[in-house]
Amino acid sequence: MIITSELAMEKEKMDLKDEANGEEEEEEEDPSSSTLLDLTSYQLHDLDSVELPLTLTELDLTSNRLSTLDPRIQHLSLLNKLSLRQNLITDDAVLPLSSWTSLSQLQELVLRDNHLKKIPDVTIFKKLLVFDVSFNEITSLHGLSSVSNTLKELYVSKNEVPKIEEIHHFHQLSILELGSNKLRVMENLQNLTNLEELWLGRNRIKVINLCGLKCIKKISLQSNRLTTMTGLEGCIALEELYLSHNGISKMEGLSSLVNLRVLDVSSNKLTSIDDIQNLMQLEDLWLNDNQIESLEGISEAVAGSKEKLTTIYLEKNPCAKSPNYTAVLREIFPNIQQIDSNVFS
Hints:
Helices cover 10% and strands 12% of the residues. It is mainly beta. It has a 15-stranded mixed beta sheet with strand order 1-2-3-4-5-6-7-8-9-10-11-12-13-14-15, with helices on one face. Helix 3 links the parallel strand 12 and strand 13 (311-313). It is elongated. Keywords: Leucine-rich repeat, Repeat.
């Protein structure tokens, strides 16, 4: 009977120790009182050989071959976390969840990397904090309107979603991950007043629109269709900004982002470094794969962060071919630890 890999290994160690030392065998922990059951990567097709103690608060079934939900799961009334990541779960297979009211206390539900084509019905989970349906085949966010407004983290990356919708009631949401979808417009974000992280990389977005949000600390819009970075001016709490692999030709709208620590504008069409001279907290600056011609003026361009900056990437710009390229940058930035791939002790 499978219990957990950790428990099995621990028992083996105890048996070996007793055999070597002649000690009396220690009493084995009663598996019926377990609170965590981790069956990651057991390649199980079902749970018939597995004991499911009613005391479980966490059940991790990641990386198996499950295509149905074991009906015994519905009796785990103490369950807080359920992970079915990387299985063979379909829309029909997940249907029973919607009626398993004994699981209503569930706080974290992970259905990442399965075969879902729509948002499953999770209405009964009134205390849900984390909901992950990334890496599926979901074509719409329809169904999110019935998800509990207690939600703090929502992951729907790597699907086929064309529109941001049905998220207006998530006032407690702190992380929203919608990367690798088919989004063209940033919209319906205005009620997410506690949002701190917004991940929208690998979409088809042309214009930045944060809908008035000001608490965001991390934004990723990598690999979109942006030609300008305007639209970020009000995000004064922003600490990390990722805009690589777009078509941006000018650095602008950045001067008000006084808390910015990480700025990635690599793989764009920049010809100069602008609008960051007052950013006193900047530590990481990624400018590689652009069209910046010269290192002349870089000292003034980053005047506010010369002492703070520890990492800068400028490779694959014309300026990276300048004589004494590395020496010049090390002189400008006295506390630099990394220039491109070169790390300094």
